[in-house]
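From the shared-data thread, chain only:
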Amino acid sequence: MRKLGLSLVLFTIFIGGGLYLASGVVLSKVTDKVLEIVISHGQTDIFSIKQPSYQKVALSGINSVVWNGISFTAMVAEQKDSQVRRPYRIWCDTVILQAVNFTERTFVITGTGLRAAGDGDGKNGALEKQYGRLEDASFTSIFYLDVFSPAQAITQLKDISLAMKRLVQHGNTDIPVQFEGTVVLPVNNKEVPVRLQIVKDQEQYVLILNKDSLQNLAVAKDEKLTDPEIELFSRNPLKSPKLFSIRDDAKNTAIEARKKDGTVPEDAYRHVFWSYLLTRSFGAEFAQMVTDAHELGMTDNTEAEHRMDYNNNAIGRSYAAKGYQREEILARLRTDSRVIISAR
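Structure, as C-alpha cells:
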C-alpha cells in the first residue's frame, strides 16, 4: 500500500512537472507570436522596435502569466522624416498579465521597473542627451482579448498595437492605461528630474509632463516659458526635449551671428530661424502653435512687437516649406523685404 502511495506521489510530481515545463514552452511560443504582431503593427515614422527579448516566462497561479527581464531596442528618428535613427535601449523588470474575468475576456497588464537609456551606453548616449533617460517607471492597462477565438484575438492585438502606436506618436490613446515615471534630463552639467505620467482627459488617456517639474527644468536651462508654453510643453512630452533644443539652437545661433557682424538683426533672425527649425522638425501647424503660445504669454510686449514676431515667425515657416538649408537663412532674411527688423 505504501509503495502504491509513493508511486502515486511520484506520478503526480512527474505529470505536474511535465505540464509545468510544457506550459513554459507554449507560453514562449505564444509570447513570440504576440511580439511579432505587436512589433509589425506598432512601427511609426519616427519609432521602430528591434531585438525584443525576455529572460523568463511562467504561469503564476491559474490566471496570471509573468515575464521577467524584458528588453528591446527602440530605433528613434532624430526628427520628422529623418533617415537617421538612433538606438534607445528599454528594459522592464517584471510584466504580469492577469485574467480578471474570463467570461468577459478582460485582462490587466502591469509592468514595474521600466527604464530606458540612449545609445546603450548609459549617461553618455547622444540620444539620451536630447531626450534624457527614463527611471522608476510603472504602468497598468486594462483591455479585452478573446483568447478563445485566435482570429479575433489577433485582430484585437493589432488594434492594441495601433493604440499604443498612437500613444508613442501623439501622446494619447483610447485604451485605459496608467503610467508614472521620471525622465532625467542633462542640463548644464546637472541632471534635472521631470515627472512623466498619463492622465485621463475625457475619453482619452494623455501623456503629460508635470508642470511644476517642467518649470524647474526651464529655470535650470535659464529659459523663461510663458504659461501657454508650459501648457503646450506639458501636453507634448515626447516633443518637449526637441523643443528646448531648437529654442537653444535658434537663440545661440542668432547671438553668435550678431557677435560676428553687428549689423545682424538678432531678434528678427532668432524668430525666423526658430520658426524655420520648428517647421523642419514638426511641420508648419505645430510650429505655429509653439510660436503663438510664446507670443500669447508675452503680455509685456507692445502691439508692434507682437506684430513683428508673428510676421517673422510666418516667414520662418515659409523658408522651411521652400526647402531652404539652415546655412542660407540669414542671407535670405537680410534681403527679404517682408522681414520686420524692428518694432515701430
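The radius of gyration is 26 Å.
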